């Protein structure tokens, strides 16, 4: 894929159950990180544009991703290299009030590969926004993690929440594939 960027969303320590004192462990974060690393490694080999997005909550007593904490740090397995772009966001959508679009446009990016967390929040938001901006979106569903959710007394298991979002995004916003399928295209 020419003119392609890999966008890694919020794979930070607070989401990893394997990290001591993680504030918000997700379902299958470690598996998502392993698959992300495979894609990241190939993207580095092919000299693709790589953008690491990191979330920090503002205000007092954030639930997780507090500024200047171990929990808000990108997981060590995915540590950005010097030549890779980094974006700090304070909200759900990685394009909102950040320079993500400018970074992509400066490199004439037309295709984005999206991975990270949480499926039903930041992954959903960035995928829809990227599609609305005209980028061709490729989403590695097995390189994304999420959590259980509840609405109006209805509890939804993480795997069902994840599947629902992936199905919705595949309908009109992204080419949703496995990591292996995406690796073959890079």
TrEMBL record:
This is Cysteine hydrolase. GO terms for molecular function: hydrolase activity. It comes from the Bacteria. PANTHER family: ISOCHORISMATASE HYDROLASE, PEROXYUREIDOACRYLATE/UREIDOACRYLATE AMIDOHYDROLASE-RELATED. Keywords: Hydrolase. It comes from Poseidonibacter parvus. InterPro entries: Isochorismatase-like_dom, Isochorismatase-like_hydrls, Isochorismatase-like_sf. Transmembrane segments: none annotated. Pfam families: Isochorismatase. Residues 4-150 form the Isochorismatase-like domain. SUPFAM superfamilies: Isochorismatase-like hydrolases.
């Amino acid at each position: 894929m020419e003119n392609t960027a890999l966008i890694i969303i919020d794979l930070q320590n607070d989401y990893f159950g394997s990290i001591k004192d993680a504030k918000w462990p997700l379902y299958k974060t470690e598996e998502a990180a392993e698959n992300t690393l495979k894609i990241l490694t190939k993207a580095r080999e092919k000299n693709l544009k790589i953008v690491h997005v990191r979330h920090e909550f503002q205000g007092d007593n954030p639930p997780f991703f507090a500024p200047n904490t171990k929990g808000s740090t990108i997981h060590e397995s995915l540590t950005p290299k010097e030549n890779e772009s980094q974006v700090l966001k304070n909200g759900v959508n990685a394009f909102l009030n950040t320079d993500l679009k400018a970074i992509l446009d400066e490199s004439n990016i037309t295709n984005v590969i999206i991975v990270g967390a949480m499926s039903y929040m930041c992954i959903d938001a960035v995928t829809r926004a990227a599609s609305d901006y005209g980028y061709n979106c490729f989403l590695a569903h097995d390189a994304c993690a999420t959590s259980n959710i509840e609405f109006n007394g209805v509890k939804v298991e993480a795997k069902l929440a994840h599947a629902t979002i992936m199905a919705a995004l595949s309908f009109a916003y992204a080419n949703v594939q496995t990591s292996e399928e995406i690796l073959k295209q890079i």
